Amino acid sequence: MKTILLLIFFTSGLLAMTPEAQAYVTYTTLSQGVQTPCSCELEQPRKLRWETSNLPYWIQTAPLPNPIAAEQAIHQSIGAWDAVEGCDAPDFTFGGVIADPTFEGKVPRIGYSQTHPELNTNLITWFSEPGTWTDGPGVLALTRLTYNPCTGQIFDADITINAVDFDFGMRSEPIEGFMDVQNTVTHEMGHFLGLDHSQTPDATMFPTAPNSEVIKRTLEADDAEGLCCIYGENTPVLLPAGTCESALGSGMETAEPNTQCPGNTLPRYFAGTWTCSSTSCAQGWTPAWNGVVFACVPAECASAPPPDSGGCQEPGTSSMPPLLLGLLLLGIATTLLRSRTS
Amino acid sequence: MIRWTVAYAFLMAMLVAPLAQATLVVDMDLPTLTREATHIVHADVLGSHTLEKNGQFRTEVQLRIRDKMKGDRPLPKGSLLTIELPGGTVGELSQMVSGTPQIRTGDEVVLFLWQREATTRPRILGLAQGAWRVERNGDRPRALRDRRGIGLVNPATHAIERHANPTAMDQIDLDALLEHIRDHVATERSLR
């Protein structure tokens, strides 16, 4: 009986101490796939993100049996990400349909070249002719990001989809046995914007996508939060005046800016970094961050040091702190010893 | 009671294990990897360098062969083989293709390779599925494979089954892995 009570005690302690669910994961300069070390020395990895407000994309759907429907599905996929409000994420602009995925019939437009900028289209393209898919058998879709390994700035993104080995459906309703285009592209656009796979099963960025599944056509809260983790929120919450305790709320800490911002912009702390933003607090108010929302609080409350994480979870990190894991293991060991002695 | 406690610990470990997957590929078991691979080698990684051509980055990895278990190409012990991985870094630009295994200079590896044409360099089959790294820290060498960065698609239905996706690194005794591979290669030959 004592043993059972101990187990309940440690389980409830674990559940109580586990941070609020936050399952999205962002790509960083240390994400997988880079074999050559960066020339710069970084103490912390940087998030991969676009540094532009206008993000053009092109589509090449010619190999598909119904290219117009495919194009429409892609626009709807991108519209889902464009509809996220409250973030400084770039707005997508349709560059056009490209009939030939090569430039002048010679060079593929996939990738990024400093010497051939005409190739640098953010392209969503299918491979359907036998022998044209070069990324190996069994690979469904890939997103290729080109970025600065020191700053994390993304310059180019291309999505390539394997229609040689897989069939894709373009109808509004799911088709048994077909991968859904809108579903697949909505998911891949998350990678395009700098998101890795989420740990939340309902999220669009969760890695599983059974064929004919369509729930990933729309975004869940976790996807939008991940996007805003990368690009920052632009709608500060104005908290009521009063004492600092009431203004800051439970657990709220203020943040000291560590950057000088030009013009009428203000420093903002988000996602572990300071940025300059035109979003401003009213006179007498100052930016603050509680790990969940960015807020304006009374200026006299701005004294505490900046928070560590800014609420963003880095790739490959568990949501469980090592100390908590240690306590859990200690609890199990104690339980084992007690059960033996009894 | 001890059994229940161990089961409890296992359950809690499953609940808190981090999951970070990055791309989707068809799940290939060892017999399938063996069948689909054009070459299977046990080798040491001598070095790598990244090239950029027409905007696409590819990293060439030089291997010194310890043993070749499959493939028409003559690759005796000590011979050199260059394979290719997508992505890499050139100067101030990096290119990332999700799901590509990490291979570093000095690693001892067992690789399932796929060569599209005789004129192209071999690539790793099934992205991270086809790359094992050998560790020789303990009494017996172990082979480790990190498939956490990929989502696995059921080869028959094309559905992606959540339970099939690993949350921890695969581990196997190196000698056992090599023996399994040789057995599958022998079976495949006998069926021809």
What are the defining features of this structure?
heterodimer, A: 342 residues, alpha/beta, six-stranded mixed β-sheet, four-stranded mixed β-sheet, 6 helices, globular, B: 192 residues, alpha+beta, eight-stranded antiparallel β-sheet, two-stranded parallel sheet, 12 strands, 21% helix
Element-level helix/strand string of chain B:
HEHEEEEEEEEEEEH
The ordered string of helix (H) and strand (E) elements of chain A is HEEHEEEEEEEEHHEHEEEEEH
For the largest beta-sheet of chain A, the strand count, sense and barrel status come to:
6 strands, mixed
Q: How far apart, in Å, are the first and last alpha carbons of chain B?
A: 53 Å
Count of DSSP helices of chain B?
3
**Rg measurement of chain B, Å:** 18 Å
The stretches of 5 or more residues of chain B where confidence is low (pLDDT under 50) are: 5-22
How many β-strands of chain B, per DSSP? 12
Q: Oligomeric state of the chains?
A: heterodimer
User: Which structural class should the secondary elements of chain A be placed in?
Assistant: alpha/beta
> Most extensive interface, residues per chain?
A-B, 76 and 68 residues
**What general form of chain B does the structure show?**
globular
Describe the global form of chain A.
globular
Question: Can you describe this structure in just a few lines?
Answer:
With 342 residues, chain A is α/β, with parallel strands linked by helices.
Secondary-structure topology with pairs:
The complex is a heterodimer of chains A (342) and B (192).
Chain A: H1 2-17, E1 49-50, E2 54-60, H2 67-82, E3 91-97, E4 102-103, E5 107-108, E6 123-127, E7 139-147, E8 153-162, E9 168-169, E10 179-180, H3 181-193, H4 221-231, E11 237-238, H5 244-248, E12 253-254, E13 266-270, E14 273-277, E15 285-289, E16 294-298, H6 322-341
Helix pairs in contact in A: 1-6, 2-3
Chain B: H1 2-16, E1 23-26, H2 30-36, E2 39-53, E3 56-70, E4 80-86, E5 88-90, E6 93-97, E7 108-114, E8 123-124, E9 131-135, E10 142-145, E11 150-153, E12 170-173, H3 174-191
Parallel strand pairs in B: 1-11
Antiparallel strand pairs in B: 2-3, 2-7, 3-4, 5-6, 7-8, 7-9, 9-10, 10-12
